[in-house]
Amino acid sequence: MVLLRRSSLADSHSEVHHGDSNLRNGRSRYVLVCIGLLTLTCAWQRASADDPSQGALSEVVVTAQRFKSTVQSTPISLSAITGEQLDAAGITSVEELAHDIPGLSMRSAGPGQTEYEARGLASSGGSAPTVGFYLDEVPMSPPAQSQTGKVVIDPNLYDVDRIELLRGPQGTLYGSGSMGGTVRVITNQPKLDVFEGSVQGALSDTQGGRVNGGGSFMVNLPLGDMFALRVVGTDTVRSGWIDRVVLNPFPQDTSTSRGNVLAAPVQSVASDVNNEHLSGGRVSLLFKPNEDLSIVGTALYQGMVMGGYDEFDDPPGAAYPAHYEGASIPEPIGDALHVYSLTVTDNLGFADLTSASGYFQRHETQTQDASESLSDLLGIYPLLAVPFSEVDITRQFSQELRLNSKGTDRFNWVGGLFYSDDRSDWNLFSAQPVFGSPPNPTGILINSDYFYRVRQYAAFADGSYKITDAWKFEAGLRWYRYQSDASAAQYGALLSSPVPTPPLNFETSDHGLNPRFDLSYSPSGDLTAYLSASKGYRPGGPSSGPLPTICGGGESPAYKPDTVWDYEVGEKVKLFENWLTINSDFYYIKWNGVQEVVTIPACGFTFTDNGGNGRSFGPELEITAKLSNEWTVAINGSYTDARVDHPTAAFAAEVISTSPPGGLPSCQSASNCSVPILNVPKYEGSAALIYTTKVLRDYHFTARISDFYVGPSTDQAYYYGIPLPSYNIINARARLAGDKWSATLFIDNLSNKVAWNTANNTQFQFNSPLLTRISTNQPRTFGTEINYRF
User: Fold this and answer.
1) 636, 100 Cβ separation under 8 angstroms
2) Taking the complete model, does pTM exceed 0.85, yes or no?
3) Residue pLDDT, tens place only, 86-141
4) H/E element, 536
5) What are phi and psi of 377, to 5 degrees?
6) 31 exposed, middle or buried (CB, 10 Å; 0-12, 13-18, 19+)?
């Protein structure tokens, strides 16, 4: 079994290095053939159907541009999926959905450890993401200074109305942190005069792990004529499959390779440590005294705890799913979230007024084993037990006030004001008493407290005007200003002072404009074509304070905002009475002042700096076809070419100094350097085949098989340019549903593929050139799910 898995991994690596050109040509031909076959098949089915409109594809209503429209009629690159579609596909998290959205990629080491990226705009550097994340009307900013990246919340998707993904800069309506796109999770709201509810239970088993299970419920309660209450709750448990292996003595690393951990004596084994327990609830209260006024207050809590990361050590690699350490240091993760929001909508006659107030607090904790990396850095053997602990506390208040026109056949507009106050407290702590000899009597290696606050102000306006019945022009503008303040206090044996020192204060600010322009052509309800240009930005940030003494000392630099201009052409077409839809676009993005993570070669410590200018371009494609009343097929794909093609001299030198042995062929000198933007797969695609039929008179049977493919990419640990091989994951489901009941059998990761998702994206201590921790996916999991509605 081990030999087979090793062979598979070797084949995957070979595919990364030698198969790009064949893969590119083969998949291009494959996509073209699929489009042709789908079109011909749908044409035949359309011609032979007695009633062409019966069984046509349903359209999803969205509010991406703050007005109600359908995906097909909205002239921007947009994907949307309803709650019913999520349930049918077995998707319970945004992380799972990301594979079905062209142009969206991610870095993840498990639940609550995911950052999203769109169109090649990586978000590992800086204090803000490149993809905005909204829960209803509340922008959910990730922790500003967490060294594990811009990880967003991972909300449970039970009782969700829909999810919308807006690709490309959304800087006009959604502001900073949305220069690659925006994800909107929109929950179901309370309903007046309707008593309804639902329950769900699931039970499954993971190969190499244990039993998974959980349940969710929803109840909607009308409370008189003006009030309604909606309550949602969930509690789930996921088994782990990664072991923590303690070796004694731990094999000493050499200057060029890690010690042979497979040959060392095993002291203890903690099995399946990366288990997860998630629980939470949502309560929404609607007050609607008349037809014009609506007030919805919502409170949400979600708590997640994990026993460890979804990561294995490389070396020895994926054939041995474990983390090896010299002392038993657990790596627990905790993530607690509280969200409170109040949304008021009032019909003023000439326009609708919306006030959206939101406050959330997120408390994250994690501990990581740093024994090997620190011992390797300092040359200390046998290993000292050195845990690093990180605490991130994020608090944000946001307020948006906007007016939406009632709309006419010719002219629509929206305008508003926005304010947010985001505060982030970050603490990094590590102690090793044995290490604490004078002049460090406390034994503290690192105690770093960093407070970061960013206040943002914005005013925005966006409108559309129909020049003719077929041509429409849209334009928008957002004025923004931000101010960032930071305070850093730190001490310890690895820092500049072994005893506490007065905090250092830093600040930075900036302002600017984000415009957008769009010209669309829609001669009928079946075709929308558009040309667009739009700008997005991400705030800069102040210095994060002094660097560790073992890294050479000094102070990390302040970094400036980075901005993008996106130029795009796209089309959306419905064919054969909406039995076939083809949505495609091609974009070119110019990225200025790319915020990059910089590694200090002397110690493997990281900080953020502007790395130069880059660009990203590629096509995106979505095809959905009803082959008959029973058969449906969906195919999505994207190609992304994203690079920093004009790096600064300092960034080019850093890349060269931390490149893998042999270097990067595309970066040999500061004057001749073009490097891939990290963790952006060149190719991504997914396909799903769904069969639905009526059985037993009152029941429907649905079978679904899906496959998503993620192409090769490049990541960074200590080295810049670690190759991640391509992979594909197959899922299958069969469902029997009546009016109230449904039962589903499913198998996820049918081929039991071991994916290499990211490299060291959880690292918040010192990187070692001899060890990379690779995040991976859940092994083959099979189980059942029962749903009941009342």
Assistant:
1) yes
2) yes
3) 888 888 888 788 888 888 887 777 777 778 889 999 887 777 888 999 999 999 88
4) strand 527-538
5) -65, -40
6) middle
